[in-house]
Design a protein that fits this description.
By secondary structure, this protein is of the alpha/beta class. Helices cover 26% and strands 20% of the residues.
Length: 241
Amino acid sequence: MTMTSVFAAKPTAPMPEAKKKDHYENFAALAKVERKGKDYQMTVIDRKDPISVIAIHGGLIELGSSHFARRLAGSDKNLYLFEGVKTKHNQLLHLTSTRFDEPQALALVKKSSDCISIHGYKDSDASLCIGGLNTDLAKRMVKNLKDAKLKYEIIYPCEIFPGKEPDNIANLSQNKGVQLELSSKLRDLFQQHPEIETQTVAAIRTSFLSAPTTTVSSTTSSASSATAVSTGTVTGTSLSR
């Protein structure tokens, strides 16, 4: 299979879904109405690693983001998932990255040196849009992904969802964070060609190896582990930030 990659910023207008207002103001408001274990579930695994991988719109909110976060975290990186498991209307569980304040997520991210936040958005092109305030780590990822000659577009910087807000949960880690936006078409591609997903994960994880280390604070208690469910088949369902 011939593989190509594009290292460029594609001027694309934001998806209409990104402009929708969250149904809940914050996690406390969400938790008063939605039922843990029935409407949503959380996975928190603190492996005492400096790097945390999170998917705050997991499960049926942004299909496939939980799966990719698990793959990226592997067996050594910290992992946080907030997953919608409602029978319908999972978009009600969407909290924008700047207002996602679930306590266990905040604790894990703030004690980490680096955070990688996984999201999904709707696009007919297979593309990975990379943003966040940790530009050094982001640029290493872009280089490694480009070198892997993958069969989809690498967009950097991400103009659609730049992830530059200081209060974006990904940027609350000590070295700030990287936000990875996977298009719906890219997630379809990963399902059809698992080897491309595997190559993507390997390229991103290689970027961790050369990341500068920061002493991780031990003042925050370790998060507990939980169990997640399968997100099911990825489709072109409308996704929001």
